[in-house]
Structure formats: C-alpha cells, structure tokens
Specification:
The chain is mainly α. Helix content is 70%, strand content 0%. The chain has two domains: 1-180, no CATH class; 182-340, no CATH class. The protein has eleven helices and no strands. The chain crosses the membrane at residues 7-28, 93-111, 123-144, 156-174, 195-219, 259-278, 285-305, 311-332.
Length: 340
C-alpha cells in the first residue's frame, strides 16, 4: 500500500473512532437525561455554548417551557441546567467536528487524487449518511418537545442504528482500501454465513437495547437471571394486541433484549470455535468477538443489577459497538484469500 492510500485509511479509521466516541457521548447524554436541554436548533451558532449570564438565562428560560422541565425537572437551578446542557452541547459539537473531519481531508485527498479508484462514491455515501443522521437527531429531539418529557424510543433506535451504520461502513471502506477483498473459498463461505447471521442478530439485539434505554425499561427489573420471581415477567402480555408488548411493554422489552443477548452470545461463541482452525486474521477476530460478547453479557447483567448507573450504561453501549466492529472485520476476513 502506497503512502497516499495509507493516509486515506488512517483518516477513515480516525473518523470511525470519532463516530465511536460520538455514540458513547450520546449514551451519556441519554443516561443523564440531557438530550432535551437544548430546545433550539441552530447548528452553526450552537457550536459555542452561552458565553454570558444573560445568554444562559435566555436558554434556561426556553428550557423551562419544555415538557421535561415542567413534568420532571421543575425547580431545577441554573447550575443544574448547565450540567445537562453540557452533554447535549458536546454531543452536537462532536457531530459538527465529525463532519469537518470527514469533509476537509476528503476534499484534499480528492484534489490530490489519493483516493483509490472505485472508493470515491462509497466515501461520498458516508457524507450522505452523516447528513441524514443530523436530520434524524433533530427528528428524535422534536419528539420530546411537544407533550412528553422524553424522546420516542423508536426514533432513538433509528438514531443509534444510523450511527452504527456509519461506523461499520467507515471501517469496512478503510479495510477495503488497505487490502482488496477477493472471493471467499468454499470453506470460508459457509462460515461467512454464520458470521453474517451473528452480525444481524447482534444488530437486532442493539435495537432492542435502544428500546430498553428509550423506555427506561432497564429499571423495571433489577434482578438476574430471574425477572422478579420467574424467567419470564408475569406482565409480558398485558398489552393488546399481543405483538405490541415486544416494543412497548417495558417488562417485555427488557425480557426480549435479554433473550436476544443470550442467543447472540451463543451464536458468537460457536462462530469463534469454528474460526479457530482457519487463517490467523479469521481466528484473531473470532476470538476477539468471543471475548467481547461474554464481556457484553456481563456488562448487561451488571448494569441491570446496579440500577443502570451512567458509567456502566455507557460502557455497555461502547462494548456493543466494539463487538459489532469485530464481527464486521470477521466478515471481511472471511471473504479474503487469506481466510483458508
């Protein structure tokens, strides 16, 4: 790999790391209930926080008209408001910085013709996803500014899934530029199907994790392995029609997330075992994924038992992203000529 493609790869990996950090900041923002603290949408002007007491009073007055203040935080002091404001401001600022980190080097590499043939359009696609993510973020926040003190858990899941799509696409493109991906062998093709299934199940588990977070369903039961006195919560089919329990019944949503997590863990461990006899990159990513999935289940259990502390909830989400990245790399390596 020449110096120019290497620079492109490093740029994309740095951008992916920023997206990862953005998702963790987003988790902290959600867990501290800070996401609705900024009720205005001024992307450029809000890159700087309020710089005077008068400006702080103005934005605080705007927040006082929000459902979250009236129904949850009535009586909050300006100092308390500044704490939750910080996380939402940092979350938005980081999004702007990611846009700059993607755009400026991209233009430079384009002018220098440093981007390998066939990769310009996929990288442009990342810009499109980034712009869409900003709109989805605004759409999500808007759901908590009308008549409810929290955002829609459906929109929250959409926001998280899009962030993960950007992360996965970025590291996939970076890996593809660093080393072409030839056709898989018969042996690795079978295992690749297993890896794609594990990736898909993990993605679904993350969606239910977002539902659990958005509904604060992780607080409904703080016991494990039982939910109360049984494996299945007694109220799991309280809502009608029955299917809606899986997306809106708090107890059932937590139960579904647990069940999906167990299945994902078993599938990834089995995948890792099958990868042991293959090439070193495949074996390495399989083992990394196995360790991360066991850690993920342990973090999930600890999060529930400790009543969802901010740091542990954020760590749980961060590890899920790392696991998704490991499975992405495993799928890639299973399609290379080295995976024999």
């Amino acid at each position: 790999m020449t110096e120019r493609p290497r620079a492109v790869v490093l740029w994309l990996l740095f951008a992916a790391a920023m997206v990862f950090a953005m998702a963790v900041i987003g988790a902290v923002t959600r867990l501290t209930e800070s996401g609705l603290s900024i009720v205005e949408w001024k992307p450029v002007a809000q890159m700087l926080p309020p710089l005077s007491h008068a400006e702080w009073e103005r934005v605080f007055a705007l927040y006082k008209d929000s459902p979250q203040y009236r129904l949850v935080n009535a009586g909050m002091t300006l100092a308390d408001f500044q704490q939750i404001f910080f996380w939402e401001w940092l979350h938005r600022l980081w999004g702007h910085l990611i846009g700059i980190v993607y755009a400026v080097p991209f233009v430079w590499f384009l002018l220098k013709r440093a981007i390998p043939r066939g990769w310009t359009r996929p990288i442009l696609g990342l810009f499109g996803l980034g712009l869409l993510q900003g709109l989805v973020g605004a759409f999500m926040v808007a759901s908590g500014l009308v008549d409810r003190p929290s955002v829609s858990h459906y929109r929250l899941a959409m926001h998280l899934v899009l962030a993960l799509a950007i992360f996965v696409a970025t590291i996939w493109i970076a890996r593809g530029i660093s080393s072409p991906r030839p056709n898989a062998t018969t042996q690795t093709l079978r295992l690749r199907g297993h890896a794609i299934a594990a990736f898909t199940l993990l993605a679904i588990t993350i969606v239910w994790g977002a539902f659990t977070a958005g509904l604060r369903a992780g607080l409904v039961y703080d016991t494990w392995p039982l939910m109360g006195l049984s494996l299945v919560p007694s109220e799991w089919l309280d809502l009608a029609p029955a299917w809606i329990n899986f997306v809106e019944n708090h107890a059932t949503v937590q139960f579904t997330h647990r069940l999906l997590a167990y299945c994902t863990c078993l599938l990834v461990i089995a995948l890792s075992a099958r990868a042991i006899g293959l090439a070193r990159p495949v074996k390495r990513w399989g083992l990394i994924a196995a360790h991360l999935v066991v850690l993920q289940v342990a973090l999930g259990v600890a999060t529930v038992l400790s009543h969802v502390p901010v740091w542990l909830g954020a760590l749980h989400q961060a590890n899920a992203i790392l696991l998704l990245g490991a499975l992405t790399m495993l799928v890639f390596e299973l399609g290379s000529r080295h995976a024999r």
